[in-house]
Amino acid sequence: MKTSLGLFLSLVVATSAFAPPSRNLGGSPLFQKSNTRSSQALNSAISALPSLPNPYKNLPWITEREQQREQRRLTNANAALFRELGLPEDATYEDVAAKTDHLIELAAGDIKKKIRVEIARDKIYMIRLNERITGVRRENDDAYIASKWEEKGREGLVELTDSVDDIIKPKAAFKIPVISGLIEYFQSIYKPPDENWTKRQAVIWGASTLVCLISPPLTENFARLNWLAAGGMMGYRGMPGMENREAGYNPFRGKRNKKHQVQAMGIAIMLWVVAKGMAESVVMKFPALAASRSCEWFKFAIVQGALGLATAFIQTYKEGEDSGELMI
């Protein structure tokens, strides 16, 4: 065993004797010197490069965002300083001065604490001064804009800004495509009826429904054309001379080629289709109505009620609006 171990050690020593000497370049003074010189040259070249300005720095929304961020930072710093002095944030100048003088007297022997109190006081004064300057500048700008508007009107505002719409037009509200437009349109054509219009609609739609009940053969003919009467009255409502039947506009004479009249006909057809589907489903849910000989009249009455209600509350004509002709 000892002989084998001795042979192994002899072999290791002999092998290491023929191995080439290792060169530690990292530990060489020459290599360290050249490496240091190259790094210094690289740092000098990087520092010599000109700093490129941010091309988006002066964009309006980025500038506004930076101002808001700076305002929040000043507000937080102001609150921290007031907490450090033990004062409320709405403390007056006299309160801040009295409190800091009192703290300086208490810290007469502690120079570091005295300096810290004086620094906090000076920062509060600086923040208050900046807030006052900003407020005065904003008030002056608003007063100047108001005076320009009073003196020259719209032309005066043109002198102040490149885009008058930024001042005159309000900020656009959030809108959903198609849906927001439909909601705004239906809000514009909705108009509660007065007493005369309510009575007129009750007489027209109620009398025609009762006539069809007395004479059932008329129901089918009326049910096909009642949307036409609804559209005519929706487009007729509110037009000049509506109350004067001799000099006013007759919705059942001449061409219905105005924009608001075409809109009224489209609304009437849409409501007529929806009302017929609703009437069909309602009547069929009640076996007694579905099996009755007046089944069609019940459906007709529901459609009449829906069209009469829509005619009472919808007015497509807008006063003072000159609707152009759409159809020949």
Question: What is shown here, in short?
Answer:
Keywords: Signal. It contains 13 helices and no strands. The protein has 328 residues and is mainly α.
SSE diagram, text form:
Blueprint: H1 2-18, H2 29-48, H3 60-85, H4 93-106, H5 111-152, H6 154-160, H7 165-168, H8 179-189, H9 195-214, H10 217-236, H11 259-285, H12 287-291, H13 295-313
Helix pairs in contact: 3-5, 4-5, 5-6, 9-10, 9-13, 10-11, 10-13, 11-13
Keywords: Signal
Signal peptide: 1-17
The helicity comes to over 70%
Instruction: Estimate nothing, just give the exact number of structural domains.
Output: 2
The largest sheet, given as strand count, sense and whether it forms a barrel, is: none
The secondary-structure element order is HHHHHHHHHHHHH
What is the end-to-end distance? 122 Å
Spans with pLDDT under 50 lasting ≥5 residues? 21-27
Which structural class fits the helix and strand makeup?
Answer: mainly alpha
- Overall shape: it is elongated
Number of strands: 0
Oligomer: single chain
Report the C-alpha radius of gyration, rounded.
44 Å
> Proportion of β residues?
under 5%
* Mean pLDDT over the full residue set: 72
Polypeptide structure, described:
Helices cover 71% and strands 0% of the residues. It has 13 helices and no strands. With 328 residues, it is mainly alpha-helical. The protein has 2 domains: 60-168, no CATH class; 180-313, no CATH class. Residues 21-27 have low confidence and may be disordered. It is elongated and about 110 Å long.
Spell out the key features of this protein:
328 residues; 71% helix; signal
